[in-house]
Design goal:
Blueprint: H1 3-17, E1 25-29, E2 32-38, E3 44-49, E4 57-65, E5 72-76, H2 87-94, E6 106-111, E7 117-118, E8 121-129, E9 134-141, E10 144-149, E11 154-159, E12 166-176, E13 181-183, E14 187-191, E15 202-207, E16 213-214, E17 217-225, E18 230-237, E19 240-244, E20 252-259, E21 266-276, E22 281-283, E23 287-291, E24 298-300, E25 313-315, E26 317-320, E27 332-338, E28 342-353, E29 359-370, E30 376-384, E31 388-397, E32 400-403, E33 408-414, E34 422-433, E35 441-452
Parallel strand pairs: 7-14, 16-23
Antiparallel strand pairs: 1-2, 2-3, 4-5, 6-8, 8-11, 9-10, 9-12, 12-13, 12-14, 15-17, 17-20, 18-19, 18-21, 21-22, 21-23, 24-35, 25-28, 26-27, 27-35, 28-34, 29-32, 29-33, 29-35, 30-31, 30-34
Amino acid sequence: MKNTNLTEGVEQWTAVHGIDLTEDVSETVAGYPHKVYKDAAGKALVETYSLTGMGHGTPIDPAFNFPGTTVACGTAGAYVLDTDICSTWYVAKFFGLDNTDSVAPTVSLTAPGNGSTVSGAVQVTATAADNVGVSRVEFFIDNALAGTDPAAPYAFTWNSATAANGIHALVARAYDAAGNTATSSTVTVTVTGGTSDTTAPTVSFTAPTAGATVSGAVTLAANATDDRGVTKVEFLVDGAVVGQGAAAAQAGRFELSWDTTAYATGTHTLQARAYDAAGNSAASASVLVTVARTSASFTEGFSANGPDNAGWSLTAWALDASDQTGSTGSKSILGAATAAFNTVTRTASVSVALTANPRLTYWRKLDLSCANTTASAAFRVIVNDGVDTVVDSAVKSGIGTLAEANWTQRADLDLSAFANKNVTLKFVVTVTDTSTNNLSRSKAWVDGIRVGPPSGFADTTPSPR
């Protein structure tokens, strides 16, 4: 509306709410004046935005259209004479309701300070800005919503006396009218004078499993939870702490990489211990594993711009410049097949002498794509001791693509059925398509092949497989 109408509207609405005409907030949003009038309790009751050149408008009038369209929009109202002003569209655009705002707000917590100690009533404040306007700011304590403020200055009062003594994490999240969001950096504070926490966490050791034989770098894993949040999980080997597990949240799976090469061959005891902010702790049951430092019977890394081992047969497989280790000069092998009204198979194979308790670990990237409903694309790993046996596979059938954008590791596939045998290890890509468009394909990159005793390596293949 025109400024004269805006002034009159403010006077009327402040009178309705019984508040004065002195604005409590005066700022600019996207270059336009924004004012907020609050009551004695600090609640925002009247807000105004002044858009230069705007006129008061009714919602719909067929005489005027949204800019660039044939859709009718608002026209001038009766308060002050305006003409040819599409007010509905401009108002919607200003508040981000025209579906063109993709810019997220910015937000940061300003109080309390990171690392500070707090007690009693704590004023939690944040600053937020947006190219159009911030619709609200939410405050979270330990990932739980604790307060919301729809207008600047953004704040809420946290009664820390109801929280447990110890460390707590605070974040603020800002929203705009288009639904874009942004989250502040985490601020941690220590509460004193809060409630006492006497409940210990729960923790269970999950990997490796009891009785496993491990070697090389092994991922230690444990699941831990606490009613107030887990602050850390320690991993112990033979009673000595070897490190703290990393996790994305204050509960769930914690992991640590353990280098077994520093330990003697034989049995070792693994355990996890979880802590909360109050200092309560709990230990998992112990797990016994065997460290085996026996070297692998076969390794292939294509580390010298070609196979490291003699005897490879590469039927339409070729060396490729990509390499899962990122080593300069190293390569992988790539098998690729496309089909048009037929089935095409490409095979890479090598002879391997297996030892006792053999396991296969290798790295791969897949690109299996089918262009019609009758097409299929597959990748298979086969062990042949006179008969082909599939020991690992991935298949895509029907329209769509199964693709691995990054190298993934298939770890410790069990080959014990072939222990102490001379076998042929095969990597096979196959594609079948009954059409003639030659668009269906089966591609696989393979690198970092290891055959030997259990490695303890982590399987990184995305789920579901």
